[in-house]
Design brief:
globular, 30 helices, two-stranded antiparallel sheet, mainly alpha
């Protein structure tokens, strides 16, 4: 066991060395941050005096490029990249410099913080190019091509179409593919890939002993039929759509019915719902035809995709930033495009104009969103009632009465505060008021307080008898109207009215004038079209990414000009065509990919020079990967024998009558469960602790690929956390009760964790480790009958900390 234990120490050392993880996972993210949060500030507040186009450049300083900023002006260098505090620019905008205070009207705190962050991350400043000049000839904007499968020399009779594309590229690079993986490796890879769980020893034995020609295909079919398949691949989708069980406002109100959308996603993958239908339901399920109430309710729940957009602020109906979040997510998740960069100005790199943005904005602004509650208006409303129309009408009337009371209470509270301020000023002789006016004010205060108490009493009575109705966090049609362009992204500075429609450079057009619906259904049809240049490409790339560790396009949320070029463009188009021609079936895509010889390769590469294709972009071998946070937690529970494999539902949130959350006392909770990690409560302002440590997805933004960190905290968690101690103890009891000898117990542990039997040296070292632990425990006060269990627990901790468990070959 010696090779297992040092991994912890190594992990700690590496973690300490790499403790500072980059803020952005790739250059594209940093550039998007600049375009969305920095350039608008520079345009509005700085360029008038500090750009090449200024009538008079003040201080000899321009902000047109990274180079000009670093060069500085008459006062010297303006920025120290990586150190905001030492940067003259930051001192000036903070108004903390004795001589320089720019602009004259101090920027908002959020703008200052954004500029500070910009400098801290190294001052990324992409070169600008107006969207009118952006290339519409970019590869991803062209129609998906029909491609010819190549005929490489190294292909064999077993080579699939995918293999032929891969082999052709390898031959061009002078590389060769390695041997296939053995069967124990392959079943562990496939099991985690499709279900996120380790194979059981019985499943490994059955596969290894199956001598039939289609044994591997039968394995894939069995895994695709597992209910755990939808949990694994549903989690990938939830990453991209930034799923959460809370609203994201500054009080982060819980959303008890959000789980229905989560389970809809899981069910959709298990049912192999065609991807085009999956998209349509999420964007416009409430507008689609239905055969019965069950289908109507399911399609309504699907629009939870739109409802789970982030909420901001403390008041109701503050939807400007929420709509931006929706457009941003739809663009990245479904189209691989950063559409929201066009909110303040034409996109600087891709052919997306501000008019395109506000054409989409009008569609989503014509939609009514379920309101989860905020600090000022704490009562949820506009949730969709999953019942007959008369019951829905009763709930709507109840919600309206509560909403009216919320408005009345806020109005009376403001009146009371005004009168109390008046009385305070009068008592301090700071106001000149006649006795008659003072008497009138006093009478008003009594009346206002009485009215306020009456309104609160009525509110408490209503809250005590809410109608019992099943509701969905979903959307419906709202007030249908076009949006006006927001100059520089400011909703207070309106420009021309923009007809609702779709992105012109992607073949989109406008809705007809005075169109009587929001346009969501038409938008869904446009995105889900087999002729759309992006939709199928983006999804097959995600499927490929989760099987091979990275996509053919390695920026899965960005197929624009700032994203990476595909390593195998012809293969990407082949897969996109196959996807559409086979009914948009995601399970069919899994089989196509996993039956390839390329997917079945070993991870070790002894055929090619170590300095050739170091990132394995051309797939001469399979790339080893670390288990995801969910795979790790679920495996610990499964191997310990205490994973609850039942379907998760809602969370034990406090009742709505108890909700008094504010920005100073927001909702925060962690609900532990032995169920799979996809059923953990996902909160926006505070990550679930285990998922945070092991790089779980950020529920505030579309996560196309998770960052991979190696930190001391991860190693310390394995050594000291109570959850790890519990799972090690469960494993110790499991192997201790199943077998009598240390050799058999070690063998069972290896088969549970690694899917293989141990070698003789591994058995010997494990036995020595356990015996040494028992001997050391003999000098303690621990009873003799407990020492073997503690020794096995210690051994289990070492096994859990091994690279062979943490990584997948």
């Amino acid at each position: 066991m010696r090779y297992l234990k040092p991994n912890l120490n190594a992990l700690i050392i590496v973690g300490l060395l790499l403790g500072c993880i980059s803020v952005f996972s790739n250059t594209s993210d940093a550039e998007e941050f600049f375009e969305k949060q920095i350039r608008p500030v520079l345009v509005e507040h700085c360029y008038r005096c500090h750009s090449a186009g200024s009538e008079k450049i003040k201080g000899g300083f321009t902000l047109d490029s990274r180079e000009s900023i670093l060069k500085g002006g008459d006062s010297g260098s303006a920025v120290v990249p990586g150190d905001a505090d030492k940067s003259l620019l930051i001192q000036a905008i903070r108004h903390s410099h004795p001589d320089l205070k720019m602009p004259k009207e101090k920027l908002a705190d959020g703008q200052i913080k954004a500029l500070e962050k910009w400098i801290q991350i190294g001052l990324p400043y992409p070169s600008a190019a107006s969207s009118e000049n952006s290339s519409t000839n970019h590869w991803s904007l062209k129609p998906v091509r029909k491609v010819t499968v190549p005929s490489p020399k190294s292909a064999t009779a077993k080579s699939t179409e995918i293999d032929r594309f891969i082999l052709a590229k390898l031959e061009q690079q002078g590389l060769r593919q390695v041997k296939p993986a053995d069967r124990t490796t392959l079943i562990r890879r496939a099991s985690y890939g499709l279900t996120g769980l380790p194979p059981t020893p019985a499943e490994v034995d059955a596969f290894v002993k199956d001598s039939s020609a289609n044994a591997y295909e039968k394995l894939i079919d069995r895994l695709l039929a597992s209910p755990h398949y939808g949990e694994q691949w549903g989690r990938h989708w939830l990453d991209v759509v930034r799923y959460a069980d809370t609203s994201g406002c500054n009080s982060d109100f819980p959303v008890p019915s959000a789980f229905k959308y989560r389970n809809y996603v899981i069910d959709s993958f298990n049912q192999d719902k065609p991807y085009d239908q999956f998209i349509k339901e999420q964007l416009a399920g409430d507008l689609l035809p239905f055969r019965n109430d069950q289908e109507r309710f399911e399609q309504t729940i699907a629009t939870g995709y739109l409802a789970i957009a982030r909420r901001f602020g403390s008041r109701a109906n503050e939807f400007h930033l929420t709509i931006e979040d929706i457009i941003d997510n739809m663009g990245k998740a479904m189209l691989g495009m950063s559409l929201s960069c066009a909110r303040c100005h034409n996109h600087k790199f891709d052919p997306i104009s501000a008019k395109d943005y506000y054409a989409l904005y009008g569609i989503f602004n014509s939609t009514r969103y379920a309101f989860p509650g905020t600090e000022i208006y704490k009562h949820p409303k506009d949730f969709i009632v999953l019942a007959a129309p008369e019951e829905a009408a009763r709930v709507a009337a109840y919600e309206k009465e509560l909403a009216d009371l919320d408005d009345r209470i806020e109005q009376l509270t403001q009146e009371r505060n005004q009168v109390e301020r008046f009385e305070k000023l009068k008592a301090e002789n700071k106001t000149d008021t006649s006795p008659e006016a003072s008497q009138k004010k006093r009478r008003t205060l009594v009346e206002v307080k009485a009215d306020l108490e009456d309104a609160r009493t009525r509110q408490r009575r209503l809250e005590a008898r809410p109608p019992a109705a099943e509701r969905a966090y979903a959307v419906s049609e709202g007030k249908i109207e076009n949006a006006k362009l927001h100059r520089k992204g400011d909703p207070g500075k309106l420009g021309d009215e923009i007809q609702r429609g779709f992105v012109k450079s992607l073949g989109g057009g406008d809705l007809p004038k005075a169109y009587p619906a929001s346009g969501r259904r038409e938008l869904a049809d446009w995105i889900a079209s087999p002729h759309h240049p992006l939709t199928a490409r983006v999804m097959v790339n995600r499927i490929w990414q989760h099987h091979f560790g990275k996509g053919i396009v390695q920026t899965p949320n960005d197929f624009g000009t700032r994203g990476k070029l595909p390593t195998h463009p012809e293969l990407l188009d082949y897969l996109a065509n196959y996807f559409c021609e086979n009914g948009w079936s995601i399970k069919a895509m899994h089989k196509l990919v996993m039956l390839s010889q390329t997917y079945q390769l070993a991870t070790e590469d002894h055929l090619n020079p170590a300095d050739r294709d170091v990132n394995n972009d051309y797939l001469a071998h399979f790339s080893r990967r670390r288990l995801s946070a969910e795979e790790l937690r679920d495996s610990l529970l499964a191997i310990g024998g205490n994973l609850d494999r039942s379907r998760g539902m809602g969370h034990p949130f406090p009742s709505e009558q108890e909700w008094k959350y504010t920005q100073h006392t927001p909702f925060i909770a962690v609900y532990e469960t032995p169920r799979r990690s996809i059923y953990l409560m996902q909160q926006r302002i505070k990550k679930q602790p285990f998922l945070e440590i092991f790089d779980g997805a950020d529920p505030n933004a579309p996560t196309g690929e998770r960052p991979l960190s190696t930190t001391a905290l991860q190693a310390l968690y394995f050594m000291n956390n109570e959850f790890m101690e519990q799972q090690a103890d469960h494993l110790a009891v499991r192997i201790g009760m199943a077998e009598r000898s240390n050799e058999d117990r070690i063998t069972f542990a290896f088969r549970l964790l690694f899917g293989r039997s141990p070698k003789r040296d591994e058995i010997r070292m494990g036995d020595e480790f356990i015996q040494n632990c028992v001997q050391e425990l003999a000098s303690t006060n621990i009873p003799e009958d407990q020492r073997q269990r503690l020794a096995l627990r210690s051994y289990a901790r070492v096994m859990f900390s091994s690279n062979e468990f943490l990584y997948l070959d």
